[in-house]
Write a structure and sequence with these properties.
Blueprint: H1 5-37, E1 99-104, E2 109-114, E3 119-124, E4 151-155, E5 160-167, E6 170-177, E7 182-186, E8 197-201, E9 204-208, E10 222-226
Length: about 250
Protein backbone atom coordinates (compact mmCIF):
# COMPACT_ATOMS: atom_id res chain seq x y z
CA UNK A 1 0.00 0.00 0.00
CA UNK A 2 1.44 3.42 -0.98
CA UNK A 3 2.13 6.09 1.69
CA UNK A 4 -0.20 9.19 1.47
CA UNK A 5 1.72 12.20 2.79
CA UNK A 6 -1.25 14.62 2.69
CA UNK A 7 -3.52 12.32 4.72
CA UNK A 8 -0.74 11.79 7.24
CA UNK A 9 -0.18 15.56 7.59
CA UNK A 10 -3.86 16.22 8.20
CA UNK A 11 -3.94 13.58 10.91
CA UNK A 12 -0.90 15.08 12.62
CA UNK A 13 -2.42 18.59 12.53
CA UNK A 14 -5.67 17.28 14.01
CA UNK A 15 -3.83 15.56 16.86
CA UNK A 16 -1.88 18.76 17.61
CA UNK A 17 -5.04 20.89 17.62
CA UNK A 18 -6.80 18.50 19.98
CA UNK A 19 -3.78 18.48 22.32
CA UNK A 20 -3.43 22.29 22.30
CA UNK A 21 -7.18 22.75 22.84
CA UNK A 22 -7.10 20.48 25.88
CA UNK A 23 -4.02 22.26 27.27
CA UNK A 24 -5.47 25.78 26.82
CA UNK A 25 -8.95 24.98 28.13
CA UNK A 26 -8.09 25.92 31.78
CA UNK A 27 -6.47 29.15 30.68
CA UNK A 28 -9.47 30.17 28.58
CA UNK A 29 -11.82 29.37 31.46
CA UNK A 30 -9.70 31.54 33.78
CA UNK A 31 -9.81 34.51 31.40
CA UNK A 32 -13.58 34.23 31.08
CA UNK A 33 -13.91 34.28 34.88
CA UNK A 34 -11.75 37.36 35.15
CA UNK A 35 -13.81 39.20 32.51
CA UNK A 36 -17.00 38.44 34.45
CA UNK A 37 -15.48 39.98 37.62
CA UNK A 38 -14.52 43.22 35.76
CA UNK A 39 -17.63 44.64 34.13
CA UNK A 40 -17.54 47.58 31.69
CA UNK A 41 -16.80 51.07 33.02
CA UNK A 42 -19.97 52.85 34.16
CA UNK A 43 -21.00 56.54 34.00
CA UNK A 44 -19.05 59.15 36.00
CA UNK A 45 -20.51 59.88 39.39
CA UNK A 46 -21.41 63.27 40.84
CA UNK A 47 -18.73 65.56 42.29
CA UNK A 48 -18.31 65.17 46.02
CA UNK A 49 -18.21 67.89 48.66
CA UNK A 50 -14.85 69.70 49.07
CA UNK A 51 -12.66 68.52 51.89
CA UNK A 52 -11.43 70.58 54.80
CA UNK A 53 -8.59 73.05 54.19
CA UNK A 54 -5.22 71.70 55.17
CA UNK A 55 -2.76 73.54 57.43
CA UNK A 56 -0.79 76.48 55.94
CA UNK A 57 2.67 75.63 54.71
CA UNK A 58 5.84 77.40 55.78
CA UNK A 59 6.56 80.81 54.24
CA UNK A 60 8.76 80.65 51.20
CA UNK A 61 11.86 82.79 50.60
CA UNK A 62 11.12 86.42 49.50
CA UNK A 63 11.21 86.94 45.76
CA UNK A 64 13.43 89.41 43.95
CA UNK A 65 12.12 93.03 43.80
CA UNK A 66 10.22 93.82 40.63
CA UNK A 67 11.01 96.59 38.18
CA UNK A 68 9.82 100.12 38.94
CA UNK A 69 6.53 100.81 37.20
CA UNK A 70 5.73 103.87 35.14
CA UNK A 71 4.47 106.98 36.87
CA UNK A 72 0.71 107.02 36.99
CA UNK A 73 -1.59 109.90 36.14
CA UNK A 74 -2.19 112.42 38.96
CA UNK A 75 -5.23 111.63 41.02
CA UNK A 76 -8.20 113.88 41.44
CA UNK A 77 -7.96 116.69 43.94
CA UNK A 78 -9.52 115.82 47.25
CA UNK A 79 -12.07 117.95 49.07
CA UNK A 80 -10.91 120.94 51.07
CA UNK A 81 -10.26 120.31 54.73
CA UNK A 82 -11.90 122.12 57.62
CA UNK A 83 -10.45 125.51 58.63
CA UNK A 84 -7.73 125.28 61.27
CA UNK A 85 -7.88 126.80 64.69
CA UNK A 86 -6.63 130.30 65.39
CA UNK A 87 -2.95 130.43 66.29
CA UNK A 88 -1.58 131.75 69.53
CA UNK A 89 -0.83 135.44 69.87
CA UNK A 90 2.74 136.37 68.94
CA UNK A 91 5.21 138.05 71.24
CA UNK A 92 5.50 141.82 71.22
CA UNK A 93 7.62 142.71 68.19
CA UNK A 94 9.71 139.53 68.36
CA UNK A 95 7.90 137.24 65.95
CA UNK A 96 6.13 139.88 63.84
CA UNK A 97 7.03 141.14 60.33
CA UNK A 98 9.36 144.13 60.35
CA UNK A 99 10.82 146.56 57.84
CA UNK A 100 14.03 145.38 56.17
CA UNK A 101 14.56 148.39 53.91
CA UNK A 102 12.95 151.49 52.41
CA UNK A 103 13.60 153.25 49.09
CA UNK A 104 12.02 156.05 47.07
CA UNK A 105 11.57 154.99 43.44
CA UNK A 106 11.95 157.23 40.37
CA UNK A 107 8.31 158.22 40.60
CA UNK A 108 8.77 159.56 44.15
CA UNK A 109 6.88 156.67 45.79
CA UNK A 110 8.03 155.19 49.10
CA UNK A 111 8.54 151.40 48.82
CA UNK A 112 9.13 149.28 51.92
CA UNK A 113 10.77 145.83 51.86
CA UNK A 114 9.54 143.67 54.74
CA UNK A 115 11.46 140.95 56.56
CA UNK A 116 9.30 138.25 54.97
CA UNK A 117 10.47 139.29 51.47
CA UNK A 118 7.32 141.15 50.41
CA UNK A 119 7.19 144.81 49.36
CA UNK A 120 4.68 147.51 50.14
CA UNK A 121 4.23 150.73 48.16
CA UNK A 122 3.04 153.53 50.47
CA UNK A 123 2.45 156.18 47.83
CA UNK A 124 4.05 159.46 46.78
CA UNK A 125 6.40 161.13 49.25
CA UNK A 126 5.66 164.84 49.72
CA UNK A 127 8.07 166.82 51.89
CA UNK A 128 7.81 170.18 53.51
CA UNK A 129 8.05 173.30 51.40
CA UNK A 130 11.68 174.40 51.27
CA UNK A 131 13.05 177.86 51.13
CA UNK A 132 12.68 179.66 47.88
CA UNK A 133 15.82 179.46 45.74
CA UNK A 134 17.57 182.13 43.75
CA UNK A 135 16.27 182.73 40.25
CA UNK A 136 18.22 180.96 37.54
CA UNK A 137 20.19 182.61 34.81
CA UNK A 138 18.94 182.86 31.30
CA UNK A 139 20.08 179.74 29.47
CA UNK A 140 20.45 178.94 25.80
CA UNK A 141 19.42 176.02 23.70
CA UNK A 142 21.99 173.24 23.67
CA UNK A 143 23.41 171.88 20.43
CA UNK A 144 21.94 168.71 19.05
CA UNK A 145 24.02 165.61 19.77
CA UNK A 146 25.82 163.45 17.20
CA UNK A 147 24.31 160.07 16.36
CA UNK A 148 24.99 157.06 14.15
CA UNK A 149 23.30 158.83 11.25
CA UNK A 150 26.25 161.27 11.29
CA UNK A 151 28.91 158.50 11.33
CA UNK A 152 31.44 157.82 8.55
CA UNK A 153 34.13 155.12 8.72
CA UNK A 154 37.42 155.66 6.88
CA UNK A 155 40.32 153.24 6.34
CA UNK A 156 43.79 154.45 5.35
CA UNK A 157 44.51 151.20 3.49
CA UNK A 158 46.99 150.08 6.14
CA UNK A 159 46.12 149.57 9.79
CA UNK A 160 44.22 152.70 10.87
CA UNK A 161 40.41 152.93 10.95
CA UNK A 162 38.82 156.30 11.72
CA UNK A 163 35.26 156.82 12.98
CA UNK A 164 34.20 160.37 11.98
CA UNK A 165 31.01 162.03 13.26
CA UNK A 166 30.17 165.13 11.21
CA UNK A 167 27.11 167.37 11.45
CA UNK A 168 27.33 170.88 10.06
CA UNK A 169 30.45 172.55 11.44
CA UNK A 170 30.81 169.96 14.22
CA UNK A 171 33.26 167.14 13.52
CA UNK A 172 34.60 164.52 15.93
CA UNK A 173 37.10 161.84 14.91
CA UNK A 174 38.12 158.65 16.72
CA UNK A 175 41.09 156.87 15.04
CA UNK A 176 41.94 153.25 15.95
CA UNK A 177 45.25 151.64 15.00
CA UNK A 178 45.15 147.85 14.65
CA UNK A 179 48.13 145.90 16.09
CA UNK A 180 48.98 143.97 12.91
CA UNK A 181 52.16 143.43 10.88
CA UNK A 182 52.13 144.92 7.38
CA UNK A 183 54.54 143.74 4.69
CA UNK A 184 56.10 146.91 3.21
CA UNK A 185 58.31 145.00 0.77
CA UNK A 186 62.05 145.67 0.40
CA UNK A 187 63.50 148.35 2.69
CA UNK A 188 64.03 151.74 1.01
CA UNK A 189 66.52 154.15 2.46
CA UNK A 190 64.97 157.46 3.44
CA UNK A 191 61.42 156.11 3.87
CA UNK A 192 59.71 156.42 7.28
CA UNK A 193 58.30 153.26 8.82
CA UNK A 194 55.73 152.79 11.58
CA UNK A 195 55.67 150.24 14.38
CA UNK A 196 54.50 146.92 12.97
CA UNK A 197 55.86 147.46 9.44
CA UNK A 198 57.78 144.50 8.04
CA UNK A 199 60.56 144.80 5.43
CA UNK A 200 63.04 142.56 3.67
CA UNK A 201 66.70 143.62 3.96
CA UNK A 202 69.92 141.68 3.43
CA UNK A 203 67.99 138.46 2.83
CA UNK A 204 66.31 138.68 6.26
CA UNK A 205 62.85 139.84 7.37
CA UNK A 206 62.65 142.69 9.92
CA UNK A 207 59.72 144.13 11.90
CA UNK A 208 59.71 147.76 13.10
CA UNK A 209 59.31 148.08 16.89
CA UNK A 210 58.55 151.81 16.75
CA UNK A 211 58.34 154.63 14.25
CA UNK A 212 61.78 154.81 12.64
CA UNK A 213 63.76 155.80 9.55
CA UNK A 214 66.89 153.83 10.50
CA UNK A 215 68.24 150.98 8.41
CA UNK A 216 67.37 147.50 9.73
CA UNK A 217 70.12 146.22 12.04
CA UNK A 218 71.09 149.74 13.12
CA UNK A 219 69.69 150.98 16.42
CA UNK A 220 66.73 149.53 18.32
CA UNK A 221 64.03 150.45 15.81
CA UNK A 222 63.97 147.02 14.17
CA UNK A 223 63.70 143.40 15.33
CA UNK A 224 65.05 140.50 13.28
CA UNK A 225 62.10 138.15 12.62
CA UNK A 226 63.48 135.71 10.00
CA UNK A 227 67.23 135.31 9.58
CA UNK A 228 68.82 134.73 6.20
CA UNK A 229 69.95 131.14 5.58
CA UNK A 230 73.46 130.13 4.58
CA UNK A 231 74.28 130.00 0.88
CA UNK A 232 74.59 126.51 -0.59
CA UNK A 233 77.67 125.28 -2.42
CA UNK A 234 77.81 125.46 -6.19
CA UNK A 235 77.03 122.12 -7.81
CA UNK A 236 78.84 120.67 -10.83
CA UNK A 237 76.87 119.96 -13.95
CA UNK A 238 77.25 116.50 -15.43
CA UNK A 239 76.41 115.65 -18.98
CA UNK A 240 73.80 112.97 -19.19
CA UNK A 241 73.04 110.90 -22.24
CA UNK A 242 69.58 111.64 -23.40
CA UNK A 243 67.51 108.58 -23.98
CA UNK A 244 65.10 108.22 -26.79
CA UNK A 245 61.78 109.89 -26.01
CA UNK A 246 58.92 107.61 -25.13
CA UNK A 247 56.14 107.72 -27.61
CA UNK A 248 52.61 106.76 -26.81
CA UNK A 249 50.43 105.33 -29.51
Amino acid sequence: MAFDGKSFGREVVGVVKEYVSDALAPVIARLEAIEKRHPEKGDRGEKGDPGERGPSGADGAPGAPGEKGEKGDPGERGPAGEPGKDGADGKDGADGVGVAGAVIDRGGNLVLTLTDGTTRELGLVVGRDGEKGDPGKDGRDGADGLGFDDLEVEHDGLRTITFRFAKGDRVKEFPFTLPVVLDRGVYKSGDAYSAGDGVTWGGSFWIAQKDTADKPGEGDGWRLAVKKGRDGRDGSAKAEKQSDPVRFK
